[in-house]
Amino acid sequence: MAKALATDFVKEESGIVSDFLNWLNASASHFHAVEEASARLTAAGFKRISEKNDSDWSGLKAGDKAFFTRNQSTIFAFAVGGKYTPQTGGFSMIAAHTDSPVLKVKPVSKKSNNGYLQVAIETYGGGLWNTWFDRDLSLAGRVIVSADNKSFESKLVRINRPILRIPELAIHLNREINEKGFQFNTQQHLYPILASAIKAELDKPAAAPAATATAPATAAATPSAGDAKASGDAKDKKASDDVTDEHHPLLLRLLAETLKVDVSHIRNFELCLYDTQPATTGGLLNEFVFARGLDNLEMSYVSLTALIDSTKDSKAFEADAQIRLVALFDNEEVGSASQYGAASNMMSQVLKRIVGTAHSSHYDGIIARSMLVSADMAHGLHPNYSDKHEELHKPALHKGLVIKQNANQRYATTAVTTFILSELAKRHSLPIQKFVVRNDCACGSTIGPILSANSGLRTIDVGIPQWSMHSIRETSGTADLKSSHALFVAFFNEFRNVDDNLSVDTPAAAAKAK
C-alpha cells in the first residue's frame, strides 16, 4: 500500500521536482547558481546583455526577453509584455537571493596544526555551524586566472569529491555534550582538515633541478643597477599577487588541475565549502526534499522557472501590459549592503534603464502600476517544537506558499498586496498560508522591506515553508514547490487584471468610502 501511495505521489510531482533537484545539484555555490540560471534563460530564448553596453538597453520593445549578471552572483531577467507601453505599463516582479550561510576560504588559508594541513575559513551569515561537522565537504567558487598577465578571466570551479572534513570530538573526550549541548568556538574548532602533513610531503612534486652556472664568476658577482631593479620588481610582484605563499600548494595544484591551467596562472580566488551529498527526495512517500541551500535556492528556482514558463503562454504574454522581471540578489544573508545586494541602488537603477531616458517622465506612473513579490523561505511548523510558533499561525509543509506579515515592518506585506496574491490563488484553487511571529520572539527580515523602501514598490513577502533553516542540510515539501510555481506563473500572467479592478488611493475609492 505504501509503495503504491509513493508511486502515485511521485508521478504527480516528478517533473518539476526532478528539475529542481538538477538545479540544486548544479548550484554548488551562489556563482554556480547564477551560471545555471543564465544557461536556463539562454535556452529559453532570453538574450544576454551587459551593464557596460548602453546599446543593449536602447530600443527595448514589446516581446523582448533579456538578462544580465553582476559580480557573477546577482542576476536580473525580464520579459516585455506584448501590450506594454510606458504610458500604461508597469512591472510584475519577483525578487529572491542566491546566497546561503556557508564557510568561506580566507584570503590567507595556509594553516598547519599537529601534523595536519588545514584550511582557514570564515563564517558567512548566520549558519547552524554545528551541522557542518562530520560532513563530506569540498570547494566551489570562482578563480581569477591569467596566462599572459595581460588578459584575465574569472572562471568557475568546483571540486567534485570530498576533500575537507571537520571531525567532531569523540564523546569519550566530551562526556557532558548530551547534557550541556554541543559547544564549540568558531575560530578554534571549525578549521576543516585538508590532508595529513606527511602524506602531503610525500606527494609534493619534485623540485626542478638547479641551473648550471656557465657565466664567468665576475659577471655574476657585480649585478648592474638594472639587474638590481629587476630583482626588486620581481620580489615586489611576488609579494603583491603571488598566491603560492598564502595557500597550500596541494590545494592550488588541485584547483589548477580542475581548471586545466598552470598553478602560476592562478591570481586570486573566492571559494566556499559545500556539502557534496546530492540533493534528493525522501520520506516514506518521497514527499520531502533534502538538500543544502534551500534557503534560498528554492525560491530562486521557483521565481526564475515561473518567469520562463509564463512567457511560454504566448497568448497571455502577448496580451500583457507589464514587464515581467525576476531579480536574484547576493548578500541577503549578511544584510544586503553591497554593490550587488538588494540594499544598493541596483533595483531602481535597472528599472529606470529598462524604461529608458526617453520615457523617464512616465517612470513614477509605471512604479505605481507595479508590484514586487519578495520570495524567501519560511519557517514551517516543527512538530517537536510547536510552541515556537504563534498559536494561530502555524504554516505546515505541503499546505502551500506562506504570506509573511509583521506589524513592525520586518516584512513589507500589506492588506492590499495580500489581497492581490490571495485572489490569484483563489482563482486557481492554490493553497496559501499566513505567518506571524510570536510577540515574545524576535522577527527576522528579508529583502522585501529594503526594496520597497528604496523603490516605492508595493510589496508582499512570501516563502515556501521548510525545516532546519540555515543548516547544512535542509528540508522542504515537494507539493509546495509545485503549487508555489503555479501561483508565481499566475502572478506574471494575471496580476494586471486583478490590479486594474482594485480601487486604492483613487477618486473611485474615495467616492465609495463616502
Question: What portion of residues is helical?
Answer: 25-40%
Measured on Cα atoms, how large is the radius of gyration?
27 Å
CATH superfamily placement of the largest domain: Zn peptidases
CATH class of the largest domain: Alpha Beta
User: Could you give the count of β-strands?
Assistant: 20
CATH topology of the largest domain, by name, is Aminopeptidase
TL;DR?
With 514 residues, the chain is an alpha/beta fold. Helices cover 34% and strands 22% of the residues. The chain has helices at 2-26, 30-43, 177-180, 197-202, 217-221, 225-241, 249-259, 294-312, 314-318, 346-355, 363-368, 415-427, 447-455, 478-500, 507-513, and strands at residues 47-48, 65-70, 74-80, 90-97, 102-113, 116-124, 137-145, 153-158, 193-196, 266-275, 280-282, 288-291, 322-329, 371-375, 378-379, 401-404, 432-435, 459-463, 465-467, 474-477.
Textual characterization of the structure:
- This protein has helices at residues 2-26, 30-43, 177-180, 197-202, 217-221, 225-241, 249-259, 294-312, 314-318, 346-355, 363-368, 415-427, 447-455, 478-500, 507-513, and strands spanning 47-48, 65-70, 74-80, 90-97, 102-113, 116-124, 137-145, 153-158, 193-196, 266-275, 280-282, 288-291, 322-329, 371-375, 378-379, 401-404, 432-435, 459-463, 465-467, 474-477.
- The protein is of the alpha/beta class and 514 residues long.
- The chain has 2 domains: 2-100 and 292-513, Aminopeptidase (3-Layer(aba) Sandwich); 102-173 and 182-201 and 238-275, Aminopeptidase i, Domain 2.
- The longest helix is centred in the first third of the chain and has 25 residues, at 2-26.
- Mean pLDDT is 90; it is low at 1-13 and 208-240.
